[in-house]
Design a protein that fits this description.
This protein is of the alpha/beta class. It is built from 18 helices and 20 strands. Bound molecules: NADP nicotinamide-adenine-dinucleotide phosphate. NADP nicotinamide-adenine-dinucleotide phosphate binds next to helix 7 and strand 13.
Length: 515
């Protein structure tokens, strides 16, 4: 059924042009569009909608007073260049036909059903704000956190300001997963604090990092170095941390070589020579995986030749072919270690290499376990949701009631991580937004959206509804007052900004100064 919808959609896509569309422009009632979520997916979508529907009104709603989602709360503080996109999003928010409603929560301040009654089109772009779980014993122990929580903590997300992240009682942390988020978290734990102090990292985080006793971080992957989920740029960055001792076991590379890669990697001087690796399918298919593997080889070679550790040196150890089996507490309620099952790889070229447990176990001592195994989206009331995949079922951004029936929910769309799952960089959302916006254009052309309906009150209706319940929403102008305050606070400390981390403080600043 979903296939039939897809075929019809493809046909329409051929017929649709890329010119700005004029639906809803001639009459007094313009097309009213609401985008829920002000991260990259939301802003790219709003920008494209404003281009495609020249006089449509686009309102962006976010549950926080502050906009920009993952760019503000997800991107690491030592990656300021990635945050430059905020300038582009600010231009979008300041454009004539765009309005921002911050501090408005779906299901609390307004339901999805009520929103759909106010807007011709609702696009859900609220991302993935929860975590996948491992489903192993010990996940609820104190000292176990998700990487998302830690990222939100150091980035000053109001939900995680008070995260009980104890960096003093232990010198060893285990991070589960080897994606870029895992690398971000490891880098923040291991980088010299002086280098972080001049970033926009939150005050409470820098204070805790100053006092941190963490000296050793294990980055644990259930597969091998060839399959690691991180990218070469991010891996190179962490390997290059000043004064950091990096450990990669030659044995892990050898296992890969003998059993899974059929390759040979030798470092002679500064030059890396590859033998049979060239015939390995996985690396042949992906330059990125090959580069990551080469970096691990280099790291292994230099860790083999480096002098023994001085106890004060910070150390990062990559552990491969180990799957988490149990988080240990030795009779207390706090983590004391982790039990890992050794794995081997199984699979073919088409299905990819899967980690399979061998029944052999080992334990690592640690006082902190950070799960970096992927984010998870959450449903809201009255929204079709695929709980297995953790996404809203959709055909090219059109929300469908379920993958079986494939009936389209008129006027309801999805974009970003909520649409495709928690993968991809900020730029991936450009392509994703393009697809969803083109679906909206096609549906207006096909008459699937009732553009003539004059009952859609749009932003005016939303404002009235929020005011009626005394909800304190924040406009973009008001956000810019908070923004200015953060810049000023940062300037005093020699930082780009000091984030306001308490929602009520943000609102107070915005409203007091406006009055
Ligand atoms: P990710 O790239 O999907 O990595 C998830 C990691 O968790 C993988 O190593 C995966 O191993 C492991 N994992 C999943 N389930 C597991 C389980 N049950 N047991 C053990 N390990 C498990 O996710 P992410 O790191 O959260 O990143 C999300 C997206 O944001 C990615 O596309 C990433 O590139 C992007 N991002 C980019 C940057 C940047 O560009 N600087 C920074 C941060 C995030 P398997 O591979 O074996 O499944």
């Amino acid at each position: 059924m979903a296939g039939r919808v897809l075929a019809a959609v493809r046909l329409l896509r051929h017929q649709s042009s890329r010119r700005a569309f004029s639906v809803g422009e001639s009459g007094a009632n313009p097309l009213q569009i609401c985008v829920v979520g002000s991260g990259p997916a939301g802003f790219y979508t709003a920008e494209k909608l404003l281009k495609r529907f020249r006089q449509a009104k686009v309102d962006i709603v976010d549950r926080l007073p502050s906009p920009f989602g993952l760019v503000r709360s997800g991107v690491a503080p030592d990656h300021p260049e990635t945050k430059v996109v905020i300038n582009q999003f600010t231009r979008v928010a300041n454009s004539e036909n765009c309005s921002y409603f911050g501090n408005v929560k779906l299901d609390e301040d307004i339901t999805l059903t009520a929103l759909r009654a106010l807007y011709h089109v609702v696009v859900l772009a609220y991302g993935a704000e929860s975590d996948r779980s491992l489903g192993i014993p010990g996940e609820g122990l104190s000292g176990v956190h998700s990487a998302r929580e830690v990222v939100w903590w150091y980035n000053g997300h109001p939900d995680c300001v008070n995260l009980p992240l104890d960096l003093k009682s232990t010198d060893t942390a285990v991070i589960l997963g080897q994606g870029n988020v895992a690398l971000d978290v490891a880098r923040i734990l291991l980088r010299p604090v002086s280098e972080l102090a001049t970033t926009d990292i939150s005050e409470h985080a820098i204070a805790a990092l100053h006092e941190s006793n963490i000296r050793k971080v294990y980055l644990v992957g259930r597969r091998g170095p060839v399959q690691a989920a991180c990218t070469a740029k991010e891996l190179r960055e962490i390997l290059g941390i000043q004064g950091l001792e990096v450990k990669v076991q030659q044995a892990d590379l050898a296992t890969t070589k003998l059993d899974h890669v059929s390759g040979l990697c030798v470092l002679l001087g500064d030059t890396l020579f590859f033998g049979r690796i060239a015939v390995n399918d996985e690396m042949k298919k992906s330059r990125s995986h090959k580069r990551v593997y080469e970096l691990f080889c280099k790291a292994a070679a230099s860790s083999a030749t480096s002098s023994p550790l001085v106890s004060s040196v910070r150390q990062l150890q990559f552990v491969f072919y180990r799957s988490p089996a149990e988080i240990l507490a030795a009779g207390s309620s706090t983590v004391t270690g982790i039990r890992l099952e050794k794995t081997t790889l199984s699979g073919d070229e088409r299905s990819g290499q899967r980690a399979v447990g061998t029944g052999e176990f080992e334990e690592l001592e640690c006082g902190l376990v950070l799960k970096s195994i992927g984010y998870k989206s959450l449903p809201v009331r009255d929204l079709p949701f695929d709980h297995r995949k953790g996404v809203v079922p959709n055909v090219q951004g059109r929300v469908i009631t379920s993958t079986e029936s494939a009936a389209i929910e008129p006027g309801l769309y999805v974009v970003g991580w909520l649409k495709r799952g928690p993968t991809g960089i900020i730029g991936t959302n450009l392509i994703c937004a393009d697809e969803t916006v083109e679906s909206i254009v096609e549906d207006t052309q096909r008459g699937l959206i009732d553009v003539q309906s004059t009952s859609m009150m749009g932003g005016l209706g939303l404002k009235g509804l929020l005011e009626a319940q005394s909800a304190q929403f924040v406009s973009f102008k008001e956000w810019q007052i908070i923004d200015q305050k953060e810049l000023e606070l940062g300037q005093v400390k020699g930082k780009p900004r000091e984030k306001i981390v308490v929602i009520q403080d943000m609102i107070k600043i915005a409203k007091d100064l406006v009055l």
